[in-house]
Design goal:
The protein has 17 helices and 20 strands. By secondary structure, the protein is an alpha/beta fold. The strands form four sheets. It has a nine-stranded mixed beta sheet, sandwiched between helices. The N and C termini lie far apart (about 60 Å).
Length: about 500
Protein backbone atom coordinates (compact mmCIF):
# COMPACT_ATOMS: atom_id res chain seq x y z
CA UNK A 1 0.00 0.00 0.00
CA UNK A 2 1.39 3.41 -0.94
CA UNK A 3 1.87 6.17 1.63
CA UNK A 4 -0.96 8.15 0.04
CA UNK A 5 -3.35 5.18 0.10
CA UNK A 6 -2.46 4.48 3.73
CA UNK A 7 -3.14 8.08 4.78
CA UNK A 8 -6.35 8.21 2.73
CA UNK A 9 -7.61 5.01 4.37
CA UNK A 10 -6.94 6.48 7.82
CA UNK A 11 -8.64 9.73 6.87
CA UNK A 12 -11.78 7.96 5.68
CA UNK A 13 -11.90 5.93 8.88
CA UNK A 14 -11.66 9.11 10.96
CA UNK A 15 -14.35 10.96 9.00
CA UNK A 16 -16.71 8.01 9.34
CA UNK A 17 -16.32 8.23 13.12
CA UNK A 18 -17.48 11.86 13.43
CA UNK A 19 -20.85 13.40 12.71
CA UNK A 20 -21.43 15.70 9.76
CA UNK A 21 -22.10 18.56 12.15
CA UNK A 22 -18.83 17.98 14.01
CA UNK A 23 -16.93 17.89 10.74
CA UNK A 24 -18.41 21.27 9.80
CA UNK A 25 -17.43 22.71 13.17
CA UNK A 26 -13.86 21.48 12.68
CA UNK A 27 -13.89 23.06 9.21
CA UNK A 28 -11.66 20.32 7.87
CA UNK A 29 -12.29 18.11 4.85
CA UNK A 30 -9.87 15.38 3.80
CA UNK A 31 -7.96 15.89 0.56
CA UNK A 32 -8.63 13.20 -2.09
CA UNK A 33 -5.55 11.20 -3.23
CA UNK A 34 -5.57 12.52 -6.81
CA UNK A 35 -5.58 16.12 -5.60
CA UNK A 36 -2.93 15.45 -2.95
CA UNK A 37 -0.59 13.99 -5.57
CA UNK A 38 -1.35 16.83 -7.98
CA UNK A 39 -0.48 19.40 -5.32
CA UNK A 40 2.70 17.66 -4.23
CA UNK A 41 4.00 17.15 -7.77
CA UNK A 42 4.40 20.89 -8.32
CA UNK A 43 5.29 21.71 -4.71
CA UNK A 44 8.39 19.51 -4.74
CA UNK A 45 11.41 21.22 -6.37
CA UNK A 46 12.85 19.69 -9.54
CA UNK A 47 16.19 19.44 -7.81
CA UNK A 48 16.28 18.70 -4.11
CA UNK A 49 18.97 19.76 -1.64
CA UNK A 50 20.70 17.38 0.75
CA UNK A 51 18.22 18.22 3.53
CA UNK A 52 14.58 19.13 2.88
CA UNK A 53 12.48 20.65 5.65
CA UNK A 54 8.71 20.36 5.15
CA UNK A 55 5.87 21.98 7.11
CA UNK A 56 2.27 20.76 7.22
CA UNK A 57 0.37 23.18 9.52
CA UNK A 58 -2.94 21.25 9.49
CA UNK A 59 -1.96 17.66 8.95
CA UNK A 60 -5.31 15.86 9.31
CA UNK A 61 -4.64 12.19 8.55
CA UNK A 62 -1.44 13.15 6.71
CA UNK A 63 -2.33 12.60 3.07
CA UNK A 64 -0.60 15.76 1.82
CA UNK A 65 2.64 15.04 3.66
CA UNK A 66 2.46 11.44 2.39
CA UNK A 67 2.08 12.64 -1.20
CA UNK A 68 4.98 15.07 -0.73
CA UNK A 69 7.32 12.42 0.66
CA UNK A 70 6.38 10.04 -2.17
CA UNK A 71 7.05 12.78 -4.75
CA UNK A 72 10.50 13.45 -3.24
CA UNK A 73 11.39 9.76 -3.12
CA UNK A 74 10.41 9.36 -6.79
CA UNK A 75 13.19 11.75 -7.89
CA UNK A 76 16.34 10.47 -9.60
CA UNK A 77 18.53 12.40 -7.18
CA UNK A 78 17.44 11.93 -3.58
CA UNK A 79 18.16 14.07 -0.53
CA UNK A 80 20.12 12.73 2.40
CA UNK A 81 17.46 13.74 4.90
CA UNK A 82 13.78 14.72 5.00
CA UNK A 83 12.79 16.69 8.08
CA UNK A 84 9.02 16.93 8.69
CA UNK A 85 7.15 19.28 11.03
CA UNK A 86 3.43 18.47 11.39
CA UNK A 87 0.72 20.28 13.35
CA UNK A 88 -2.72 18.88 14.14
CA UNK A 89 -5.20 20.07 16.78
CA UNK A 90 -7.36 16.94 16.89
CA UNK A 91 -5.72 14.48 19.26
CA UNK A 92 -7.91 11.68 17.88
CA UNK A 93 -5.67 11.63 14.80
CA UNK A 94 -2.52 11.04 16.86
CA UNK A 95 -2.28 7.29 16.40
CA UNK A 96 -2.95 7.53 12.64
CA UNK A 97 -0.21 10.14 12.22
CA UNK A 98 2.29 8.17 14.30
CA UNK A 99 1.62 5.09 12.16
CA UNK A 100 2.03 7.13 8.98
CA UNK A 101 5.25 8.67 10.27
CA UNK A 102 6.74 5.23 10.89
CA UNK A 103 5.65 4.02 7.46
CA UNK A 104 7.23 7.09 5.82
CA UNK A 105 10.44 6.57 7.79
CA UNK A 106 10.74 2.94 6.65
CA UNK A 107 9.91 3.83 3.03
CA UNK A 108 12.57 6.55 2.99
CA UNK A 109 15.11 4.32 4.74
CA UNK A 110 14.64 1.69 2.01
CA UNK A 111 15.88 4.31 -0.44
CA UNK A 112 18.77 5.40 1.72
CA UNK A 113 17.13 8.58 2.95
CA UNK A 114 16.90 9.50 6.63
CA UNK A 115 13.44 10.81 7.62
CA UNK A 116 12.70 12.60 10.87
CA UNK A 117 9.30 13.89 11.99
CA UNK A 118 8.24 16.28 14.73
CA UNK A 119 4.54 15.99 15.61
CA UNK A 120 2.80 18.83 17.45
CA UNK A 121 -0.76 18.32 18.64
CA UNK A 122 -1.50 21.99 19.17
CA UNK A 123 -2.83 25.00 17.29
CA UNK A 124 -0.33 26.00 14.62
CA UNK A 125 -1.53 29.62 14.71
CA UNK A 126 -0.62 29.94 18.41
CA UNK A 127 2.60 27.93 18.26
CA UNK A 128 6.12 29.07 19.12
CA UNK A 129 7.10 28.24 15.55
CA UNK A 130 4.75 30.89 14.17
CA UNK A 131 5.91 33.40 16.77
CA UNK A 132 9.50 32.92 15.62
CA UNK A 133 8.63 33.87 12.01
CA UNK A 134 11.89 32.16 11.06
CA UNK A 135 12.24 31.32 7.37
CA UNK A 136 13.24 27.69 7.69
CA UNK A 137 11.07 25.47 5.45
CA UNK A 138 11.76 24.36 1.90
CA UNK A 139 8.16 23.19 1.37
CA UNK A 140 4.85 24.01 3.03
CA UNK A 141 1.76 22.13 1.91
CA UNK A 142 -1.71 22.32 3.48
CA UNK A 143 -5.45 21.93 3.32
CA UNK A 144 -6.33 24.25 6.23
CA UNK A 145 -9.61 24.35 8.14
CA UNK A 146 -12.07 27.02 7.11
CA UNK A 147 -14.59 28.74 9.30
CA UNK A 148 -15.16 32.30 10.45
CA UNK A 149 -13.55 33.60 13.61
CA UNK A 150 -14.66 36.25 16.04
CA UNK A 151 -12.34 39.25 15.78
CA UNK A 152 -11.69 38.90 19.51
CA UNK A 153 -10.50 35.30 19.08
CA UNK A 154 -6.90 34.85 20.27
CA UNK A 155 -5.87 33.57 16.83
CA UNK A 156 -7.29 36.66 15.13
CA UNK A 157 -5.62 39.07 17.54
CA UNK A 158 -2.29 37.25 17.27
CA UNK A 159 -2.41 37.55 13.49
CA UNK A 160 -3.95 41.02 13.31
CA UNK A 161 -1.61 41.85 10.40
CA UNK A 162 -3.77 39.51 8.26
CA UNK A 163 -7.19 40.58 9.55
CA UNK A 164 -9.51 43.11 7.93
CA UNK A 165 -13.17 42.81 8.88
CA UNK A 166 -14.49 39.29 9.51
CA UNK A 167 -11.52 36.88 9.64
CA UNK A 168 -11.64 33.32 8.33
CA UNK A 169 -9.21 30.86 9.91
CA UNK A 170 -7.93 29.57 6.57
CA UNK A 171 -6.73 33.08 5.67
CA UNK A 172 -4.63 33.15 8.83
CA UNK A 173 -3.05 29.80 7.87
CA UNK A 174 -2.21 31.21 4.43
CA UNK A 175 -0.57 34.28 5.92
CA UNK A 176 1.23 32.74 8.91
CA UNK A 177 2.86 29.97 6.87
CA UNK A 178 4.05 32.38 4.17
CA UNK A 179 6.43 33.96 6.70
CA UNK A 180 8.18 30.65 7.34
CA UNK A 181 9.37 29.74 3.83
CA UNK A 182 13.11 29.77 3.11
CA UNK A 183 14.35 31.76 0.08
CA UNK A 184 13.44 29.75 -3.01
CA UNK A 185 11.14 27.49 -0.98
CA UNK A 186 7.76 26.23 -2.22
CA UNK A 187 4.34 26.84 -0.66
CA UNK A 188 1.09 25.10 -1.67
CA UNK A 189 -2.48 25.30 -0.34
CA UNK A 190 -5.92 24.09 -1.36
CA UNK A 191 -8.57 26.53 -0.13
CA UNK A 192 -11.83 28.22 -1.05
CA UNK A 193 -11.17 30.80 -3.78
CA UNK A 194 -12.80 33.65 -1.86
CA UNK A 195 -9.43 35.00 -0.63
CA UNK A 196 -8.53 36.17 -4.13
CA UNK A 197 -10.78 39.20 -3.84
CA UNK A 198 -12.90 41.18 -1.42
CA UNK A 199 -12.01 43.49 1.44
CA UNK A 200 -12.00 40.78 4.14
CA UNK A 201 -8.94 39.11 2.62
CA UNK A 202 -7.09 42.27 1.48
CA UNK A 203 -4.65 42.11 4.41
CA UNK A 204 -4.03 38.40 3.73
CA UNK A 205 -3.24 39.11 0.07
CA UNK A 206 -0.89 41.97 0.92
CA UNK A 207 1.02 39.82 3.41
CA UNK A 208 1.25 36.87 1.02
CA UNK A 209 2.50 38.97 -1.88
CA UNK A 210 5.14 40.61 0.33
CA UNK A 211 6.51 37.18 1.24
CA UNK A 212 5.85 35.04 -1.85
CA UNK A 213 5.27 35.25 -5.55
CA UNK A 214 2.36 33.22 -6.87
CA UNK A 215 3.68 30.58 -9.22
CA UNK A 216 0.48 28.79 -10.29
CA UNK A 217 -3.25 28.50 -9.66
CA UNK A 218 -5.58 25.61 -10.43
CA UNK A 219 -9.33 26.22 -10.37
CA UNK A 220 -12.12 23.71 -9.85
CA UNK A 221 -15.18 24.64 -11.92
CA UNK A 222 -17.48 22.31 -10.01
CA UNK A 223 -18.30 23.32 -6.46
CA UNK A 224 -18.60 19.71 -5.30
CA UNK A 225 -16.41 17.39 -7.40
CA UNK A 226 -13.07 18.14 -5.71
CA UNK A 227 -13.68 16.81 -2.16
CA UNK A 228 -15.33 13.67 -3.46
CA UNK A 229 -15.73 11.87 -0.12
CA UNK A 230 -17.29 14.93 1.57
CA UNK A 231 -20.57 16.41 0.38
CA UNK A 232 -19.56 20.07 0.40
CA UNK A 233 -20.49 22.96 -1.86
CA UNK A 234 -17.50 25.25 -2.18
CA UNK A 235 -15.59 26.97 -4.96
CA UNK A 236 -12.01 25.82 -4.46
CA UNK A 237 -8.56 26.33 -5.90
CA UNK A 238 -4.99 25.18 -5.45
CA UNK A 239 -2.30 27.84 -5.21
CA UNK A 240 1.46 27.37 -5.41
CA UNK A 241 3.90 30.06 -4.34
CA UNK A 242 7.69 30.54 -4.25
CA UNK A 243 9.66 32.65 -1.80
CA UNK A 244 11.54 34.65 -4.40
CA UNK A 245 11.20 37.84 -6.40
CA UNK A 246 11.13 37.52 -10.19
CA UNK A 247 10.86 40.33 -12.71
CA UNK A 248 8.39 39.95 -15.57
CA UNK A 249 6.66 37.29 -13.51
CA UNK A 250 4.17 34.93 -15.12
CA UNK A 251 1.56 32.83 -13.37
CA UNK A 252 0.46 29.45 -14.72
CA UNK A 253 -3.29 28.77 -14.66
CA UNK A 254 -5.17 25.55 -15.17
CA UNK A 255 -8.75 24.44 -14.63
CA UNK A 256 -10.64 21.18 -14.19
CA UNK A 257 -14.16 20.21 -13.28
CA UNK A 258 -13.01 18.19 -10.28
CA UNK A 259 -10.41 15.63 -9.25
CA UNK A 260 -10.96 13.02 -11.95
CA UNK A 261 -10.08 15.26 -14.90
CA UNK A 262 -6.99 16.92 -13.40
CA UNK A 263 -4.71 15.40 -16.02
CA UNK A 264 -6.85 16.87 -18.80
CA UNK A 265 -6.30 20.46 -17.60
CA UNK A 266 -4.52 22.59 -20.20
CA UNK A 267 -2.22 25.15 -18.56
CA UNK A 268 -1.77 28.69 -19.83
CA UNK A 269 0.41 31.51 -18.53
CA UNK A 270 -0.36 35.19 -17.97
CA UNK A 271 1.64 38.11 -16.64
CA UNK A 272 1.16 38.72 -12.96
CA UNK A 273 0.61 42.42 -13.67
CA UNK A 274 -2.40 41.46 -15.82
CA UNK A 275 -4.22 39.66 -13.05
CA UNK A 276 -3.04 41.24 -9.78
CA UNK A 277 -4.43 44.73 -9.26
CA UNK A 278 -1.84 47.43 -8.63
CA UNK A 279 -3.83 49.15 -5.89
CA UNK A 280 -3.80 48.50 -2.16
CA UNK A 281 -6.47 45.79 -2.42
CA UNK A 282 -4.24 43.57 -4.63
CA UNK A 283 -7.22 41.64 -5.98
CA UNK A 284 -6.19 38.53 -7.92
CA UNK A 285 -8.15 37.50 -11.02
CA UNK A 286 -8.56 33.81 -11.83
CA UNK A 287 -9.48 33.30 -15.50
CA UNK A 288 -10.58 29.79 -16.43
CA UNK A 289 -8.99 29.82 -19.90
CA UNK A 290 -6.65 31.82 -22.10
CA UNK A 291 -9.68 33.05 -24.07
CA UNK A 292 -11.36 34.23 -20.87
CA UNK A 293 -8.17 36.06 -19.88
CA UNK A 294 -8.02 37.81 -23.26
CA UNK A 295 -11.67 38.84 -22.96
CA UNK A 296 -11.24 40.32 -19.49
CA UNK A 297 -7.99 42.02 -20.55
CA UNK A 298 -9.88 43.81 -23.34
CA UNK A 299 -12.64 44.80 -20.95
CA UNK A 300 -10.09 46.37 -18.59
CA UNK A 301 -9.08 48.80 -21.34
CA UNK A 302 -12.54 50.40 -21.32
CA UNK A 303 -12.34 54.06 -20.28
CA UNK A 304 -14.95 54.51 -17.56
CA UNK A 305 -16.41 53.29 -14.30
CA UNK A 306 -19.85 53.88 -12.80
CA UNK A 307 -18.52 56.76 -10.73
CA UNK A 308 -16.78 58.49 -13.62
CA UNK A 309 -20.06 58.79 -15.54
CA UNK A 310 -21.96 60.07 -12.53
CA UNK A 311 -23.69 56.84 -11.49
CA UNK A 312 -23.94 55.34 -8.03
CA UNK A 313 -24.25 51.69 -7.03
CA UNK A 314 -26.47 51.17 -3.98
CA UNK A 315 -27.91 48.21 -2.13
CA UNK A 316 -31.64 47.75 -1.62
CA UNK A 317 -32.48 49.42 1.73
CA UNK A 318 -35.32 47.09 2.80
CA UNK A 319 -33.93 44.56 5.29
CA UNK A 320 -36.80 42.11 5.73
CA UNK A 321 -36.50 41.32 9.44
CA UNK A 322 -36.13 45.01 10.34
CA UNK A 323 -39.03 46.05 8.12
CA UNK A 324 -41.36 43.20 9.14
CA UNK A 325 -44.00 45.59 10.51
CA UNK A 326 -44.34 47.28 7.11
CA UNK A 327 -44.14 44.30 4.72
CA UNK A 328 -47.50 42.87 3.62
CA UNK A 329 -48.62 39.67 1.89
CA UNK A 330 -51.48 41.42 0.06
CA UNK A 331 -52.01 44.95 -1.23
CA UNK A 332 -53.87 47.37 0.98
CA UNK A 333 -54.33 51.10 1.28
CA UNK A 334 -50.92 52.79 1.36
CA UNK A 335 -48.79 49.87 0.10
CA UNK A 336 -46.32 50.10 -2.76
CA UNK A 337 -44.51 47.34 -4.71
CA UNK A 338 -41.65 45.55 -2.94
CA UNK A 339 -39.15 43.86 -5.25
CA UNK A 340 -37.16 40.81 -4.21
CA UNK A 341 -34.52 38.82 -6.12
CA UNK A 342 -37.25 36.59 -7.56
CA UNK A 343 -38.74 39.57 -9.40
CA UNK A 344 -35.50 40.32 -11.27
CA UNK A 345 -34.50 38.27 -14.33
CA UNK A 346 -32.53 38.86 -17.51
CA UNK A 347 -35.90 39.27 -19.22
CA UNK A 348 -36.77 42.24 -16.99
CA UNK A 349 -38.63 43.03 -13.78
CA UNK A 350 -41.76 40.94 -13.25
CA UNK A 351 -44.13 42.08 -10.49
CA UNK A 352 -46.35 40.74 -9.03
CA UNK A 353 -45.57 37.03 -9.27
CA UNK A 354 -47.86 35.77 -6.49
CA UNK A 355 -44.97 35.68 -4.07
CA UNK A 356 -45.57 36.32 -0.39
CA UNK A 357 -44.70 39.77 0.96
CA UNK A 358 -44.61 41.63 -2.35
CA UNK A 359 -45.94 44.84 -0.81
CA UNK A 360 -44.65 47.39 1.67
CA UNK A 361 -46.43 50.23 3.46
CA UNK A 362 -45.50 53.74 2.41
CA UNK A 363 -45.74 55.90 5.52
CA UNK A 364 -43.57 58.47 7.34
CA UNK A 365 -41.94 55.70 9.43
CA UNK A 366 -40.94 53.64 6.38
CA UNK A 367 -40.12 56.49 4.00
CA UNK A 368 -36.36 56.23 4.60
CA UNK A 369 -36.27 52.75 3.07
CA UNK A 370 -38.33 53.54 -0.06
CA UNK A 371 -37.10 54.84 -3.41
CA UNK A 372 -38.79 57.27 -5.79
CA UNK A 373 -40.42 55.39 -8.67
CA UNK A 374 -37.81 56.32 -11.28
CA UNK A 375 -35.60 54.63 -13.86
CA UNK A 376 -33.05 52.16 -12.44
CA UNK A 377 -30.90 49.22 -13.42
CA UNK A 378 -31.68 46.55 -10.82
CA UNK A 379 -29.33 43.63 -10.16
CA UNK A 380 -29.42 40.48 -8.10
CA UNK A 381 -26.66 40.40 -5.50
CA UNK A 382 -26.50 36.58 -5.68
CA UNK A 383 -26.90 34.09 -8.49
CA UNK A 384 -26.23 30.35 -8.86
CA UNK A 385 -22.74 29.60 -10.21
CA UNK A 386 -24.36 27.34 -12.80
CA UNK A 387 -26.64 30.15 -14.06
CA UNK A 388 -26.28 31.45 -17.64
CA UNK A 389 -24.60 34.62 -16.38
CA UNK A 390 -22.93 35.51 -13.10
CA UNK A 391 -24.61 38.94 -13.32
CA UNK A 392 -28.40 39.20 -13.53
CA UNK A 393 -29.43 42.77 -14.38
CA UNK A 394 -32.88 44.04 -15.37
CA UNK A 395 -34.02 47.41 -16.72
CA UNK A 396 -36.65 49.19 -14.69
CA UNK A 397 -38.34 52.10 -16.47
CA UNK A 398 -40.66 53.35 -13.69
CA UNK A 399 -43.31 51.02 -15.09
CA UNK A 400 -45.21 50.20 -11.89
CA UNK A 401 -48.03 52.53 -10.94
CA UNK A 402 -46.77 53.89 -7.67
CA UNK A 403 -45.03 56.99 -6.35
CA UNK A 404 -42.49 54.88 -4.46
CA UNK A 405 -40.81 51.50 -4.66
CA UNK A 406 -39.24 49.09 -2.18
CA UNK A 407 -36.06 47.15 -3.01
CA UNK A 408 -35.13 44.26 -0.72
CA UNK A 409 -31.56 44.07 0.55
CA UNK A 410 -30.53 41.21 -1.77
CA UNK A 411 -30.74 43.61 -4.73
CA UNK A 412 -28.37 46.32 -5.96
CA UNK A 413 -29.48 49.23 -8.11
CA UNK A 414 -27.78 51.81 -10.33
CA UNK A 415 -29.01 55.40 -10.24
CA UNK A 416 -27.84 58.95 -10.89
CA UNK A 417 -27.82 61.03 -7.68
CA UNK A 418 -29.52 64.37 -8.25
CA UNK A 419 -30.71 63.31 -11.68
CA UNK A 420 -32.35 60.51 -13.63
CA UNK A 421 -31.23 57.76 -15.96
CA UNK A 422 -32.56 58.04 -19.50
CA UNK A 423 -34.31 55.14 -21.16
CA UNK A 424 -31.30 54.43 -23.44
CA UNK A 425 -28.87 54.59 -20.53
CA UNK A 426 -30.89 52.02 -18.58
CA UNK A 427 -31.21 49.64 -21.52
CA UNK A 428 -27.57 50.08 -22.60
CA UNK A 429 -26.21 49.54 -19.09
CA UNK A 430 -28.39 46.48 -18.58
CA UNK A 431 -27.29 44.96 -21.88
CA UNK A 432 -23.63 45.53 -21.04
CA UNK A 433 -23.94 44.09 -17.53
CA UNK A 434 -25.65 40.97 -18.90
CA UNK A 435 -23.03 40.48 -21.62
CA UNK A 436 -20.67 37.51 -21.97
CA UNK A 437 -17.56 39.66 -21.50
CA UNK A 438 -18.82 41.00 -18.16
CA UNK A 439 -19.74 37.45 -17.16
CA UNK A 440 -16.15 36.34 -17.87
CA UNK A 441 -14.84 39.30 -15.88
CA UNK A 442 -16.90 38.49 -12.80
CA UNK A 443 -16.08 34.79 -12.95
CA UNK A 444 -12.38 35.72 -13.04
CA UNK A 445 -12.40 38.47 -10.42
CA UNK A 446 -15.21 37.45 -8.08
CA UNK A 447 -14.50 34.64 -5.64
CA UNK A 448 -18.13 33.87 -4.95
CA UNK A 449 -21.55 33.98 -6.56
CA UNK A 450 -22.17 37.32 -4.87
CA UNK A 451 -22.01 40.41 -7.08
CA UNK A 452 -21.42 43.15 -4.56
CA UNK A 453 -21.56 46.90 -4.92
CA UNK A 454 -17.78 47.32 -4.55
CA UNK A 455 -17.12 45.04 -7.53
CA UNK A 456 -19.68 46.90 -9.64
CA UNK A 457 -18.01 50.20 -8.77
CA UNK A 458 -14.65 48.85 -10.00
CA UNK A 459 -16.09 47.33 -13.17
CA UNK A 460 -14.66 48.97 -16.34
CA UNK A 461 -17.47 50.20 -18.61
CA UNK A 462 -17.78 51.93 -21.99
CA UNK A 463 -18.30 55.68 -22.17
CA UNK A 464 -21.84 57.00 -21.71
CA UNK A 465 -22.31 57.73 -25.42
CA UNK A 466 -21.53 54.09 -26.29
CA UNK A 467 -23.95 52.82 -23.66
CA UNK A 468 -26.67 55.10 -25.03
CA UNK A 469 -26.05 53.85 -28.58
CA UNK A 470 -26.36 50.26 -27.36
CA UNK A 471 -29.61 51.12 -25.59
CA UNK A 472 -31.05 52.88 -28.65
CA UNK A 473 -30.73 49.64 -30.67
CA UNK A 474 -32.77 47.56 -28.24
CA UNK A 475 -36.38 47.21 -27.06
CA UNK A 476 -37.31 47.89 -23.44
CA UNK A 477 -36.82 44.24 -22.42
CA UNK A 478 -34.23 42.80 -24.80
CA UNK A 479 -33.37 39.11 -24.90
CA UNK A 480 -29.88 38.06 -23.88
CA UNK A 481 -29.16 37.28 -27.51
CA UNK A 482 -30.21 40.71 -28.80
CA UNK A 483 -28.37 42.46 -25.98
CA UNK A 484 -25.21 40.44 -26.66
CA UNK A 485 -25.31 41.34 -30.35
CA UNK A 486 -25.71 45.05 -29.59
CA UNK A 487 -22.86 45.05 -27.06
CA UNK A 488 -20.54 43.05 -29.33
CA UNK A 489 -21.29 45.35 -32.26
CA UNK A 490 -20.30 48.45 -30.32
CA UNK A 491 -17.32 47.06 -28.41
CA UNK A 492 -15.76 45.20 -31.35
CA UNK A 493 -16.91 43.88 -34.74
CA UNK A 494 -18.58 40.44 -34.57
CA UNK A 495 -16.14 37.63 -35.39
CA UNK A 496 -17.01 34.54 -37.40
CA UNK A 497 -17.81 32.56 -34.26
CA UNK A 498 -20.26 35.27 -33.16
CA UNK A 499 -21.85 35.39 -36.63
CA UNK A 500 -22.34 31.60 -36.66
CA UNK A 501 -23.81 31.76 -33.16
CA UNK A 502 -26.21 34.52 -34.23
CA UNK A 503 -27.29 32.61 -37.36
CA UNK A 504 -27.91 29.46 -35.31
CA UNK A 505 -30.07 31.33 -32.77
CA UNK A 506 -31.99 33.11 -35.55
CA UNK A 507 -32.72 29.74 -37.17
CA UNK A 508 -33.88 28.34 -33.83
CA UNK A 509 -36.19 31.34 -33.31
CA UNK A 510 -37.61 30.99 -36.82
CA UNK A 511 -38.29 27.27 -36.24
CA UNK A 512 -40.14 27.97 -33.03
Amino acid sequence: MTLVSFAHQNGKAFISSVSREEQKQLGQFMTPPLIAEFMAHRAVPVRTSSIIRILEPSAGAGILIAATVEAILSKDILPQEIDLVLFEVDIRLKSALIELTEKMRLTAEAKGVRLRCSLYFEDFLLSELVCSAKRQFDICIANPPYFKLNKADERATKHAYAVHGQPNIYGLFLAASASLISPGGKWCFITPRSWLNGAYFAAVRRHLLRNLRIDALHLFESRQNHFQDDAILQEALIVWGIAEAVQDQRITFSCSNGANDLTDATPFAVRATDIISDDDSQVIAAPTSAAAHEATAKLRTLPCTMGSIGLKVSTGPVVAHRAANYICDTPKHGTVPLLWMQHVTHAGVRWPIQKKREHILSCPESSWMLLPNANYVILRRFSPKEDTRRVTAAPYLSSLESAFLGLENHLNYLHRPGGTLSRDEVIGLTAYLNSAVVDEYFRAFAGSTQVNAAELRRLPIPCLATLERIGSMLPDTPSLFDAELAVTTHLEPPNRHTERHIQAEEAEVATN
